[in-house]
Design goal:
Layout lengths: L4 E6 L5 H13 L3 E6 L1 H4 L4 H7 L17 E7 L1 H9 L5 H8 L4 E5 L3 H5 L1 H12 L3 E2 L3 E4 L5 E5 L3 H13 L8 E7 L3 E2 L5 E2 L6 H12 L3 E7 L10 E4 L3 H11 L5 E4 L6 E3 L18 E3 L3 H7 L5 E8 L4 H11 L4 E6 L11 E8 L3 E8 H23 L1
Parallel strand pairs: 1-2, 1-3, 3-4, 4-5, 8-11, 8-13, 11-12, 13-16, 16-17
Antiparallel strand pairs: 6-7, 9-10, 14-15, 17-18, 18-19
Helix pairs in contact: 1-8, 4-7, 9-13
Length: 392
C-alpha cells in the first residue's frame, strides 16, 4: 500500500547520482515517487533512470509541476536553485513545482564550500529556513573538484529519514479542531487613529500552518495580520479586542485546542470619537478602560479544550509573571517570550520561548518562528495524548 506521494526534484549537480539511491529508498518504503528532473540534472544522470527507479513510464505531462503531493524533496539542491527558491523564481520544472507545492519541502544542498559559505547563499538559506523549509546538510567532506569543506550532499539515507519524519506527522492531529488567535488588536480613538501594538501575527500564523500540516482542522481568528493567513484554514477577522472575544467564545465549545497567540489590547479608549479629531494644538486626554480577559474567561469554563496562552513579558520578574499566569488563567500551557529583546518576538522572524506547563518547563532556543511553532505543537500533541491516555 502506498504511504505518500512524494515529488523528488533533481537539479544540475554531480551529486545527482545520489538522488538515484534516494528515489530507490523512497520507493522501497512504499511511496509513490514522482521525479522532476531539470535539464541540467539530465546532463549528469538521464531522467529515464529516475523514471525507471520510480517505476513510472516517462511522460510528456505539461503540468507535472502541479502534481499534488504530500511532500517535495529536492536533492541535490544547487546554489543556483537555492537562490531561485529564496526569490520565487520559477523557470524550470523543479522551481515551478516549488511555488505550486502546498506541504513540507525538504532540500539537500550540494555545492562548492566557498559557494556555500558566501553571504549571498547564507542569506538565501536563512530565507528558506524562515519559511519552514527543512534543510538536510550539507556535510563536510571531499567534493568532486577535489576541495575539502562543507558542501557535500548528505547521504540518501539521511535525506530519506528526514522525509519519513515529516510524513509521520501529517496525520498526527487528524480529527482535532484547533482554534488559534493571531495578530494584534487595534482599539479605535476615532475613525482614523487607534491604540494598538506591534504584533505581526507571524507566530500565530506559523502555529496555524503547523497544526494544519499535521492534519488538524484549523480556525484562525485574525487581528490585523501583517503576514498572509495560511491556505486551508478558516479565517475569522477580529480587528478589536471585543471582536476577538466574541469570535473566540462563539467557537470555543467546538475546539479541542485553543491557542491564544494574539496580542490582545489590555485597555481601550472609553469612548471612540466619530469622524477624525482635528489637530488644533490642544492636549488630548484619553480615558482608557480594561478590555475583557479572554484567556481567563476560557479558563473558567467547564470545557474539555486544551488551553494554551502566551505571556509576552519584560523585566527581571518576567518569567515569574508568566508562571503565575498559568495558574491564574487555569491554562494547560503558557508560552513565555521576552519582549524586551528586539531580535525576537514582536515584528521579528525569530523567537525564543519557554514552554511552561503544570508539571514541567522547557526552553526552546532562538529559531525561526516556524520551528518554534513546531516545538509548541509537539508539546500540545504530547498533552493531548497524555489526556487521552488518562481518559481511557
Amino acid at each position: 500500500m502506498l504511504v505518500a506521494r512524494i515529488l523528488v526534484g533533481v537539479t544540475g549537480g554531480i551529486a545527482a547520482y545520489k538522488a538515484c539511491e534516494l528515489v530507490r529508498l523512497l520507493v522501497k518504503g512504499g511511496h509513490d515517487v514522482v521525479p522532476l528532473v531539470t535539464e541540467g540534472a539530465d546532463r549528469f544522470v538521464r531522467r529515464q533512470t529516475f523514471f525507471a527507479l520510480s517505476r513510472r513510464e516517462p511522460t510528456e505531462d505539461l503540468y507535472a509541476h502541479l502534481t499534488r503531493a504530500d511532500l517535495f524533496v529536492i536533492a541535490p539542491l544547487t546554489a543556483n536553485t537555492l537562490a531561485k527558491l529564496a526569490h520565487g523564481i520559477a523557470d524550470n520544472l523543479v522551481t515551478e513545482a516549488a511555488l505550486a507545492h502546498r506541504g513540507p519541502l525538504v532540500v539537500a544542498p550540494a555545492m562548492n564550500p566557498r559557494m556555500w559559505a558566501s553571504q549571498a547563499t547564507q542569506a538565501n538559506v536563512a530565507t528558506l529556513r524562515a519559511r519552514g523549509v527543512e534543510l538536510v546538510g550539507p556535510d563536510e567532506g571531499e567534493l568532486a573538484e577535489g576541495e575539502w569543506g562543507v558542501g557535500r550532499m548528505s547521504e540518501p539515507e539521511e535525506i530519506q529519514a528526514a522525509c519519513e519524519g515529516l510524513l509521520a506527522h501529517r496525520e498526527q492531529l487528524a480529527g482535532r479542531r484547533f482554534l488559534i488567535s493571531a495578530g494584534g488588536t487595534r482599539e479605535p480613538l476615532d475613525d482614523v487613529r487607534f491604540v494598538g501594538n506591534r504584533s505581526s501575527g507571524r507566530m500565530g500564523v506559523a502555529l496555524a500552518e503547523e497544526a494544519l500540516r499535521r492534519g488538524a482542522d484549523v480556525t484562525l481568528v485574525a487581528s490585523n495580520l501583517s503576514v498572509p493567513a495560511p491556505l486551508g484554514v478558516d479565517v475569522v477577522q477580529a480587528p478589536t479586542a471585543a471582536a476577538l472575544e466574541e469570535a473566540v467564545l462563539a467557537r470555543a465549545d467546538d475546539a479541542d485546542v485553543i491557542v491564544m497567540a494574539a496580542a490582545v489590547a489590555d485597555y481601550r479608549p472609553a469612548e471612540a470619537l466619530a469622524g477624525k479629531r482635528a489637530k488644533d494644538g490642544a492636549a488630548w486626554t484619553i480615558e482608557l478602560e480594561p478590555t475583557g480577559d479572554v484567556l481567563r474567561t476560557l479558563g473558567e469554563r467547564d470545557a474539555d479544550a486544551l488551553l494554551v496562552g502566551f505571556a509576552a513579558e519584560a523585566g527581571e520578574a518576567a518569567i515569574e509573571r508568566a508562571r503565575r499566569k498559568l495558574t491564574d488563567k487555569n491554562a494547560n500551557l503558557i508560552v513565555f517570550n521576552d519582549v524586551s529583546r528586539s531580535d525576537i518576538g514582536f515584528e521579528a522572524e525569530e523567537n525564543e520561548v519557554v514552554l511552561i506547563g503544570r508539571e514541567s518547563e522547557r526552553r526552546i532556543d532562538k529559531a525561526p518562528k516556524r520551528a518554534i511553532a513546531a516545538a509548541i505543537v509537539d508539546e500540545v500533541a504530547r498533552l493531548l495524548e497524555e489526556r487521552d491516555g488518562r481518559g481511557r
